[in-house]
Amino acid sequence: MPNSVRHSRSLMTLFALCLLPVGAFTEMATAAPTQSSKLCEIKVTPRAGLVSLEAIVRADKTTDGSYTLRIDKTGGGGSSSITQGGDFEVSAGKAATLGSVTLDSRGSSYKAVLEVISGGKSHRCTKQVSDD
Questions:
Q1: How far is CA 32 from each of CA 64, 96, 111, 118, rounded to the nearest angstrom?
Q2: Three-class DSSP category at 16
Q3: What does pTM read for this prediction?
Q4: Which of 20, 24, 30, 39 is the most exposed, fewest CB within 10 Å of its CB?
Q5: Per CATH, the architecture of 34-130 is what?
């Protein structure tokens, strides 16, 4: 009997160790990005039938990480997507432009999503632009 108890404990320990990475992966996969207007911003500048979208990151302390800027266009002439991304570093108290694009604004609408990953956290900023 003591031998079977020892094997049961060993099997339970092995089973628990096998499930530990699964739980950690599930937590990472379901972690939602936070809305953060303090860290990221999408600046919109309309001018003469065009619209410029600029992805900006700001930091209170020196920060580095990576970003993805995705812009989806709908309207006149169909639909399209633009994606930019890469690594960044910004000094304390400063702002840095991560990426930018200038597009035709006539008869189109755009949704821009900037996702910044820094310090193990994901931050997301979204901006809708339409030609009304």
A1: 20, 24, 19, 14
A2: helix
A3: 0.69
A4: 30
A5: Sandwich (2.60)
